[in-house]
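To assess whether the prediction recovers the assembly geometry, we first specified each molecular entity separately, as shown.
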Amino acid sequence: MRRPMVAGNWKMNGDKALVQQLLGHFKSNIRAENADVVIFAPYPFLYQAEELLSASGIEWGAQNFYIEASGAFTGEVSLGMLKEFGCKYALVGHSERRTLFGETDEMCAAKVKAALGAGVIPVLCVGETLEQRESGVTEDVVGQQVKAVLELVGAEGIGQSVIAYEPVWAIGTGKTATPQQAQDVHAYIRKVVAEQNAEVAEKIQILYGGSVNASTAEELFAMTDIDGGLVGGASLKADDFVTICKAAE
Ligand code: 13P
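The predicted structure of the complete assembly is given in tokenized form:
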């Protein structure tokens, strides 16, 4: 049995007051006993996350990082810095980073490797665009995104990571993939990993992301290969995120 996980990706949203309010609410209402719960906060709020979530059972992490340990990389943040603020997880290759900031499969693979080396659990995001889905290449695209990482870190490396399937057309659009559409891709991702190592494939947590909300979470999480969700907009709504976590538990 895989342990479910629900992660909230706040993206570039929030302010000190909202962070205080949301994290206070999550701490009082989410037990995180039967599921891993993680909040991906913007960098400036990681200090607050550490202050407010320590000993709550809820984990926190960063939405990005740079692969080098230190040096002349103006504007970048290292994994060592994230660890100092208690980050257990970090997102890698979110579609917004791939499209808006030019992150390639190779860069994502290097980031997964760097995170594993630093002892931070990478949550590798993969997913196809609407155009790719409509032209029937979803498996090729997602398969390649996963294989690029497998080639660099092997099944052992992937086995220490989390994968999030986020179809680009479902992100922030209100258009959730149907449970069956998501299940099909999750099963395919597991198959790609199983070609390298069946045991790792069976154990790895694969989350679905893309317009998950309080009313769609339960049916998505009920699918065999869906182990939870990576939630954007609804993770900024206190009660909705709690409901989604309960659906996973
Ligand atoms: P939404 O839940 O807002 O569609 O965002 C999904 C996402 O990108 C999470 O990483």
